[in-house]
Task: structure prediction
Amino acid sequence: MDFSKISSFLESCDNVTILTHKAPDGDTLGAGFALCRYLRSAGKKANVLNSEELPERYSFLYSWYQPQQFEEQTVIAVDIADLKLLGSKLSAYAEEGRIDLCIDHHVSNKYFAKLTYVNASASAACQIIYELLSYMGAQLDKETATCLYTGIATDTGCFKFENTTAAAHIAAAELMKYHVEFASINRKMFDVKSRARMNIEQMVTNEMEYLFDGRCAVMTLTSDMIEKSGIEPAEFEGLASIPLQVEGVEMGITIKQRHEKVFKLSVRTAEKIDASAFCQKFGGGGHIRAAGCELNGTLEEVRKLVEDSAAELFEGENS
Amino acid sequence: MDFSKISSFLESCDNVTILTHKAPDGDTLGAGFALCRYLRSAGKKANVLNSEELPERYSFLYSWYQPQQFEEQTVIAVDIADLKLLGSKLSAYAEEGRIDLCIDHHVSNKYFAKLTYVNASASAACQIIYELLSYMGAQLDKETATCLYTGIATDTGCFKFENTTAAAHIAAAELMKYHVEFASINRKMFDVKSRARMNIEQMVTNEMEYLFDGRCAVMTLTSDMIEKSGIEPAEFEGLASIPLQVEGVEMGITIKQRHEKVFKLSVRTAEKIDASAFCQKFGGGGHIRAAGCELNGTLEEVRKLVEDSAAELFEGENS
Result:
């Protein structure tokens, strides 16, 4: 698949449903609404669907959006690597042959669509949509540019993370020309926290445990703390990266209670340690810098398991 | 002054002392060391001076640097708007006629040098040095690119703030090609905190007071808290922006104790409120989004003054 094929596909399609992934983020919504707005500007009918109610924090991406009435002819998935990510309300689209085109930047893409375009070196799905629309000579406007900028900014941590490419900066430079209110967007996306989020950050920082000369930090998040703080599920994003913000910490482990004796482990590492290998020992997995797994037992049992396993890593290197 | 004149100046100069501003940040050091490295690569002798010991957090900018012995012929100031910013150890350079060239991006530049190049719309002094070196066709390397990237990233809050320009993104895209370890730099510059900093953030968040339906947040930082936390002066950077991170807060006020009955006020505002006008009432000033002033009295007296003044602002608008 290349841009010339996708561009022919988009030119000939109509009555388009655009699917975005569950637990929606700035990239899937930015890509979905940017594509929708482009298709509508080309005289086609198009809607964006998500399995969940869209979080208020992204409402600036689609303030212009009203669903349209039409008989669906085309289905496009954006930023969706796996049919599982459609979520329960969109599960009907998981049937074979329902999705015509998938545009994605995840190396793990399962190629479930009839046509798939994956560029795993793109910083964001919005980066691909930006390059595709440029290739097609599409006329952008402030609303579309806002969607695309937001997707690139959120997926790269505002151009901070390893996945930021020169192309991402160039896209940002171009998109800014459409009067994107990037400073206000970035403040909203990266700086502003609810009081509930402030509360939970405080609680977990208070209780943070430092091990192995401060090279490993373990943070615990019990159901009780979650309830007390009043935090919403959408606000958990990025919480697991807090331990790694402490100077000297090379591995940050977050133990989050799911049920009475079920805990979700989120592991983040700074330079050398393989988070994925660590989690694989417990049947989990992920990336080298961010991985996860699920553990059963009491909090004490789970903490002991985790600390013993970390000890092998930190004490093992001296033996 | 334009690039052709500065470039002739740089080509003909030698034995260069480059001055950077006191309380050094990523931009002044990045610009200074990038310029130094360029001049040395062109066969000239050059040193970088600062009034203070350089903070450890910027050591990656100049790990290659050793001072050279020479009889000073040329003095260049970078990112210095005012001679006061030289600091006490460099005060000899504040005498008239000592500084040959000043390269800066502050609109408030006092034009104290024999030649001054100011571009107030540049995101950073490093942005100007980058464009100057490009204009001169200078060969960059990883070390120079690291200096320039860091200055642009730190002065724009990693491309987050209003002062980020399309040109800043384009410079970043170009500089990344020299294998700048930007993710690790950004982690160090923006994410990592000492435990002392973590402590103080926790203390001030615990004590934060919300006024006027949460539209104003007041944070107090007493000498006692500062001592207890173990925080170093260099680590205070950005602390005053914490109140504004809370959802709904439009004005964040930080009251920091300087002496028993002397307090420094730092005011940050989000959208509409003029921080500078607020501080002017107390004899201070600054920018529309960030300003400061000094107040005398007990903490209780200072708080009352501040709250009464804020009340005029928040309650006045309804009358």
User: Anything to note?
Assistant: The longest strand of chain B covers residues 251-259.
